[in-house]
TrEMBL record:
A Pfam match: adh_short
Keywords: Oxidoreductase
Gene Ontology annotations for the cellular component aspect, listed alphabetically: membrane
Family annotation (InterPro entries): KR_dom, NAD(P)-bd_dom_sf, Sc_DH/Rdtase_CS, SDR_fam
GO molecular function, one term: oxidoreductase activity
Keyword Oxidoreductase: yes
Protein name (Swiss-Prot/TrEMBL): Oxidoreductase
Superkingdom to which the source organism belongs: Bacteria
Domain Ketoreductase: 8-193
């Protein structure tokens, strides 16, 4: 059963850009009151001002529990409750384990997975009070593999499983939990990798449908906001990813692994050379998240 977002209090992490920003705009258009939580203060302030005085923003690193707790307290002080949480903040390091410092790999996991855990921990008392809904943004990477994305795939698979267990833990409190699984979305994060790494573009083109497709941020955000209103257990963007998840043992099995390994023999050294030449572990527009 759909639940209108009119006057619902929705806390969104990572709303300064990309999916989070567009989700915030769509939710506001449907009448939600927003708490925008993220690192880029100037962008958050501008978005909140544009959307109107029903909305607020909080500068916060999702890997810092004290900052998250303060953002949640500020939201409750202003609105009295939290009805929906969208744990969206995410980053992706460039390239393989061999060419990334351990700190870059760990930062990807810290933001994408530990950040989700901390966000849920900070907001769960409020969600229990409101019998609310949490949507944890995972990825198609949760049920596929790709060389050069070890930390990202691990973090997004972790988000999926964290959500699956959390759902069982909180159902008797009336709290619903969903996970969202977008494919490549035309955001700054994906554009940075496509611009910086020619080999990344080539690898993605060789993936089977629908894993080789890119969707607009508008289409992805619309799927997510519709999923929030349905308190959906799974949100796929596009919907064809449901079949990929159902057949995940094929996509991660020995046959698929052998096919990927053949291409990896040449593509991985090329990718590593590009990352070394680039001289940084993250996209140019991920600087604030490092």
């Amino acid at each position: 059963m759909r639940r209108s977002l009119r006057d619902a209090v929705v806390l969104v992490t990572g709303p300064a850009r990309g999916i989070g920003e567009r989700v915030a705009r769509l939710a506001a258009a449907r009448g939600a009151r927003l708490a925008l939580v993220g690192l880029e203060a100037a962008r958050l302030a501008a978005l909140a001002a544009e959307l109107g005085d029903r909305h607020s923003w909080y500068r916060c690193d999702v890997t810092d529990q004290a900052e998250l707790d303060a953002a949640v307290a500020g939201t409750i002080d202003r609105y009295g409750r939290i009805d929906v949480v969208v744990a969206n903040a995410g980053i992706a390091n460039n390239g393989t384990v061999a060419v990334n410092p351990a700190d870059a790999l760990a930062r990807t996991v810290e933001v994408n997975l530990i950040g989700v855990m901390r966000t849920v921990s900070a907001t769960l008392p409020a969600l229990r009070e409101s019998r609310g809904y949490a949507l944890l943004v995972s990825s198609a990477a949760a049920f596929t593999v790709l060389p050069g994305m070890a930390a990202y795939c691990a973090s997004k698979a972790g988000v999926e499983q964290f959500g699956n267990a959390l759902r069982l833990e909180v159902a008797h409190h009336g709290v619903a939990v969903g996970t969202a699984h977008p494919i490549w979305v035309d955001t700054d994060l994906v554009r940075d990798q496509q611009h910086d790494l020619r080999t990344f573009r080539a690898v993605v083109r060789r993936l089977p449908y629908p894993l080789n497709t890119t969707i607009t941020v508008e289409k992805c955000a619309l799927s997510i906001v519709d999923g929030i209103e349905r308190r959906a257990r799974r949100v796929y963007a596009p919907r064809s990813l449901a079949a990929v998840q159902a057949l995940r043992t094929i996509y991660t099995g020995p046959v698929a692994g052998a096919v990927l390994a053949r291409g990896a023999r040449t593509r991985v050294p090329e990718l590593e050379a590009e990352v070394r030449a680039l001289g940084r572990s993250f996209g140019s527009r991920s600087a604030a998240d490092r």
